[in-house]
Amino acid sequence: MPVLRRLGEQTGPAAPGDAAGPALERIIGFTFDDPGVPPGDDELTAFVDHMESIHGRFADLTWLTGGTMVSYHDMVRTVVDTLGPALVDVDLVVTVEASQDCRHQSFPGSLLCELLPGDPLMMGISEQGVAGPFTALRIAHDQVAAGGARRALVVAMEQNTLPPDDAAVRPGRNLAVAMLVGPDGTMPLGRPRVARTAAPAAAGSTPPRGDVLVAGAALAAPPGRATVVRAPAGHPCLGVWLTLASLLEQGLAAGSRVVVADEDPVLPYRCEVVLTLPATPHPDTATRPGTRGSIARVGAPHPDPAAVPVRPHRRKELAR
User: Distance between CA 116 and CA 88 in Å, rounded?
Assistant: First the structure.
């Protein structure tokens, strides 16, 4: 039976006032190019009926029946399989869905908590555009800082299966980014900032100073910054995070201050967060091939997998 607790209830030591505070342990980007399992006829019919009750009747269903058919459930399974024992003491999970899952009719966070050892507290954020991952990181930051969580896992996902009349920017590929936050990470994490702008894509406040600015496709980068790395177009929610993972894998100067900033092209949100790289680079920055696509992996596992008694993952599918 799941253990119930209130958000903010202390489960770990609160960071003392002079401590560095929560830090990013790892950030991992996934791309999903291999076909998933096609839905059954009954499942597809029920989902089409549901979607047509919202969007009206579809003249063509190839947007749903074609493509790679990767669901958010497929994504969280791959995240758990990849991170494995590094998740053993995660007690807070925050999922971010850029859009509704058009491949499955249940929430991925519920399945993710079933697959993880223990009974982590689960929260879900959906359809906040670029603000979703920043909001999730802010929750993770605050909970770890206050002792409400020992370690937190943030899983943000984009799916390129969307109804043809959807007004949002359509992702070019099926993507996921997993981020682990804890008190012992190597990259101190500032408190993420999510602000409303007067209008979509309006000029907002200047991002904080840093050695490197990872800028979203819709963000107007201020002049005079030493290094600006622009996230690629076609990834409206995860572009800056995939870019950050890639930069960290390639290697940045020790002690660099990295600012990640983005602005939503549709919603009135402007977001930013500051990361500080350790003074000495960590030796484990290898890239490991994934089972469903490519993976960029940064940071050492926490704790050492060889020293952790691995609890079996519960592979039970939720009833629908």
Answer: 8
Are 189 and 22 in contact by the 8 Å Cβ rule? The answer is yes
- At residue 105, the pLDDT reads 63
Ranges of residues in the chain whose predicted pLDDT is under 50: 1-4, 15-19, 201-204, 283-320
Task: Find tokens 């299966």 and name the residue.
Answer: 161
